[in-house]
Amino acid sequence: MKRKQIVVLALIVLALVAYFRLGLGEYLSLAALKAQQAALAEYQQQHPWQLAGLYFAAYVVVTALSLPGAALLTLAGGALFGLVWGSVIVSFASSLGATLAFLVARFLLRDWLLGRFGERLRAVDEGIRRDGAFYLFTLRLIPLFPFFLVNLLLGLTAMRVRTFYSVSQLGMLAGTLVYVNAGTQLARVDSLADIVSPTLLASFALLGIFPLVARRLVDAVKAHKVYAGWTKPRRFDRNLIVIGGGSAGLVTAYIAAAVRAKVGLVEQHRMGGDCLNTGCVPSKALIRSARLLAQIARARTFGIATAEARCDFAEVMERVQAIIRQVAPHDSVERYRALGVDVVEGAARIVSPWQVEITRRDGTQQSLRTRSIVVAAGARPVVPELPGIDRIAYLTSDTVWQLRQLPRRLLILGGGPIGSELAQAFSRLGAQVTLVERGARLLAREDPEVSALVAQRFRAEGVQLRLEHEAKSFIVEQGEQMLIAEHAGATVRLPFDALLVALGRRANLDGYGLAELGIASGATLEVNEFLQTRYPNIYAAGDVAGPFQFTHTAAHQAWYASVNALFAPWRRFRVDYSVIPWATFIEPEVARVGINEQEAQARGIAYEVTRYDLDDLDRAIADGAAEGFIKVLTVPGKDRILGVTIVGEHAGELIAEYVLAMKNGIGLNRILATIHIYPTLAEANKYVAGVWKKAHAPATVLRWVERWHAWRLRGRGG
Ligand SMILES: Cc1cc2nc3c(=O)[nH]c(=O)nc-3n(C[C@H](O)[C@H](O)[C@H](O)COP(=O)(O)OP(=O)(O)OC[C@H]3O[C@@H](n4cnc5c(N)ncnc54)[C@H](O)[C@@H]3O)c2cc1C
């Protein structure tokens, strides 16, 4: 706790002690008020402003300190100032006092709570941002929940002070009027419970629920307005049409067919989308060949005297295609038709919120009416508009798979996951790779030590890293292609034979009716937490929607998009991004789930780090893979996992245990108590839990146990 917080806390404690020690509460009883009514009225005759001021201040203090007696004070307001002035004074004093209590709770506890329950509190904040004003209004009107608790609890959230004050004032108005009015007839009030009848309470409750109902109505009206101008068909051909047969679209269609919906899937290019044809599958196949070469190159370190390998690049690339062909049946038209999906090979275009026009491969057209649409149109590589790039036959992750001749000098733009994976693979296959990155390090989303380890390995393998190099233009000089880059204020010329652009991927948003429908999009398609676009029956999933660009997140979103598209408004689910893992398939492999240190720091989340280095692990040593580490971030003092980074052999497999743990609230203690097979890499997960446990061993208890053992050594204790 900071000094200022301690001072505020001390003042509050002092005030509370004074209140109770001086017996001030006795003055806040109905009997005391009635007994003093005449005297107070006389004082008011002589000093009306003073009394109003004193009353206001007393009210503010009582509510700010969450003392009992606010209801009584409200009655007194009516008795002293009448209905109008009494209501005005009470309304402002109670709102001000409540806001002070709200601010004090925030000042004393919010930072601490953020540190301890950062992720969960953020989820609460998100709910408060969305619906907080409505809930507060309801709580103010339905006095089932004590007001002082409302003040304190909302102070712990991110609700804006202005919102809290204004909604509180409005919400408390009805109750204030009732109590102040009762105060004007003080002589007839025998107990505070008499003031509000069950009927009055029920009316308040109805009034309280009204804003939430109104909100739902407003949403319905808004949705209705979006559809104005469009004619909804009376009948439909499909329950759902999915645009795009990549990871997101396939899973969406699969789920829809599994729940017996009539679902259409439209794919204009190749079933399987990026992942199968130009993304995960070919890149991992290429990486496997490159890895084998790298292993053969270090055969001597395994005691093998001679092992030579000559890379036939064209063969490697043919193998990549063979792997694609082998996996393709999983995503094929035949498979999906057999599952009950109506697959159409053609280009889809949304022409109304319920109508999709399809231009089939053979040029024929089909128009289908559908209740819902899921847009799963994916993304494509970003190509920067740099001067001269139009003169270069650059490659992207879409086209690199067509290469059959290994470029001698390959220049890769971009040090993210795709750029890094392909840089290492091509280098291992024999190309001289130069990787140009504007930032100071590779894999900038990971912690700096991860980037450093990867950079060290890349350099050792001969990849030329050009960090902090900003690409400016391309030139061709005497037949030689060159990148002109800026580095530390100087111009650098980097010659190359082939250029691979790996600067990220942009959502496919054009050419299929989104703009005509006015569906908002920036870098990706704008969707709400249910994955709905502004048309509630049009959803989006996968790379087109972001915020992640992975096959597994596309599939994860697909479940929500499909279920929501088919079952809303009866049943719908908010997409859950709380535990998202990913891996970059370089060597050493980098995998992560949850937050890392740089994210925790940026978001002000308190954490503890536990680290286990893989050079200590028996299996890693035996495999000649004793490199890397596991880093676990936990809540300070607890074993609850906030995030894990693994760098090392099979990191992408090892992380699965933490994904399961985080998803199911399993902490390091339970991982430690789980048997892991010896000797496996997975044992590292147990060992890191052991490191955590050792650091949190109960020192005092252990000291006593030590003494007990010593005592037993002396033959005591039976
Ligand atoms: C080199 C590379 C390596 C990668 N490695 C990994 C990895 O290891 N792990 C991982 O999780 N992710 C990886 N990814 C990312 C992964 O491939 C994508 O996140 C995933 O493919 C996204 O799936 P999607 O369904 O959203 O889009 P896509 O797979 O792009 O599918 C969209 C489909 O929609 C079709 N389409 C578009 N418009 C229309 C239209 N109007 N009518 C009909 N059809 C249309 C397109 O033809 C396309 O087939 C990698 C990506 C690349 C480029």
Write the layout of secondary structure elements.
Blueprint: H1 3-21, H2 30-46, H3 48-64, H4 70-141, H5 147-155, H6 161-184, H7 198-226, E1 238-243, H8 247-258, E2 263-267, H9 273-277, H10 280-297, H11 313-327, H12 333-338, E3 342-352, E4 355-360, E5 365-375, E6 379-381, E7 409-413, H13 417-429, E8 432-437, H14 448-461, E9 464-467, E10 470-477, E11 480-487, E12 490-496, E13 498-501, E14 505-507, H15 514-517, E15 538-540, H16 551-567, E16 581-584, E17 590-594, H17 597-602, E18 608-613, H18 618-622, E19 629-634, E20 641-647, H19 651-654, H20 656-663, H21 668-672, H22 683-695, H23 699-713
Parallel strand pairs: 1-2, 1-5, 2-3, 5-15, 7-8, 7-13, 8-9
Antiparallel strand pairs: 3-4, 4-5, 6-14, 10-11, 11-12, 16-17, 17-20, 18-19, 19-20
The protein binds flavin-adenine dinucleotide.
Residues 243-249, 266-269, 273-275, 278-280, 283, 347-348, 376-379, 397, 418, 508, 512, 542-544, 549-552, 554, 585 line the site of flavin-adenine dinucleotide.
